[in-house]
């Protein structure tokens, strides 16, 4: 009997090793970060422009950094968007906090997301001014998006106008004048077109060089924001990857694998040298490293004290901030 149990455990471990992706993939299936990127991608498709995800804006008042989920920049506006992936019944309490009940856990209380988004917009505006981008009145707005299909509430009318519930989210349609054209207070009309284009250009440059979280893109359309720490694996693989540091590399892509037996044996890692003058690199600038598929990435996710390990075989790409 004990021999059968032992053999079963060995078979199970072999199966997990060869046929199942890294356990972390299973844990981020309902990730708030993945919901965040899905929202950003849809906003870009609906309204054009550029969505900057996972910003860490310096807050002069607190001396810390303010996390901003998404900043959407279009030709006529800039919108700070807070994404709350709430699942279950959501109500607003008397003190303005939000209460989420989903039947699986005790009711969870959250600070007012609208006030948080308002604060983030204020910090962002101050940061932009410090970097020489002064926004006209009404050009910057904020919204809270609730994209989870399991979100529901009894009193929809209790939510502020800045909130986009799930039902509203799935019904959003492109508007010719921008995402929230009703918010723009006539800042740009007639002869101010050149000024508008100038601000748009400055905004994109400033936000593209603003502090951000590092980003992992995993198989299965999953994302993790946080901080890349180091690689772990065989010594010769670590030597091959020694040039991949945030001061030197902006992005790496796990491009293809070679097979040996039942498991991946080798991965081809393509990485782009950092160029502070422009975004990305041309095809001729990419460099290559070949390592074992067992090589791991140590990553500290945002809002987590636990360092996580991700196998390179589960990673599509990783973006590093300077």
TrEMBL record:
Residues 31-147 form the NERD domain. Coiled coil: none annotated. InterPro entries: NERD. This is NERD domain-containing protein. It comes from Manihot esculenta (Cassava).
């Amino acid at each position: 009997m004990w021999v059968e149990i032992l053999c079963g455990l060995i078979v199970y471990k072999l199966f997990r090793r060869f046929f199942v992706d890294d356990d972390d993939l299973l844990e981020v299936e309902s990730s708030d970060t993945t919901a965040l990127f899905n929202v950003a991608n849809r906003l870009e498709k609906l309204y054009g422009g550029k969505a900057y995800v996972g910003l860490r804006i310096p807050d002069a008042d607190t001396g810390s950094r303010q996390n901003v989920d998404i900043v959407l920049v279009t030709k006529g506006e800039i919108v700070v968007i807070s994404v709350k992936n709430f699942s279950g019944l959501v109500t607003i309490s008397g003190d303005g906090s939000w209460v989420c009940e989903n039947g699986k856990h005790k009711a969870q209380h959250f600070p007012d997301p609208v006030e948080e988004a308002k604060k983030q917009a204020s910090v962002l505006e101050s940061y932009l001014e410090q970097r020489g981008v002064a926004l006209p009145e009404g050009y910057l707005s904020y919204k809270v998006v609730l994209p989870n299909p399991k979100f529901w509430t009894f009193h929809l009318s209790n939510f502020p106008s800045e909130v986009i519930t799930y039902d509203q989210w799935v019904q959003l349609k492109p508007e010719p004048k921008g995402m929230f054209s009703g918010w723009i207070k006539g800042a740009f009309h007639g002869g101010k077109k050149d000024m508008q284009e100038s601000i748009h250009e400055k905004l994109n440059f400033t936000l593209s060089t603003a502090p951000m979280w590092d980003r992992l893109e995993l198989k299965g359309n999953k994302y993790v924001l946080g901080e890349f720490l180091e690689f772990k694996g065989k010594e010769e693989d670590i030597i091959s990857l020694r040039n991949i540091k945030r001061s030197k590399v902006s992005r790496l892509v796990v491009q293809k694998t070679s097979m040996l037996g039942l498991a991946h044996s080798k991965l081809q890692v393509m990485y782009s040298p950092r160029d502070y003058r422009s975004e990305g690199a041309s095809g001729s600038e990419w460099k290559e490293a070949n390592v074992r598929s067992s090589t791991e990435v140590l990553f500290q996710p945002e809002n987590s004290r636990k360092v996580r390990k991700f196998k390179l075989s589960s990673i599509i790409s990783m973006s590093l901030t300077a």
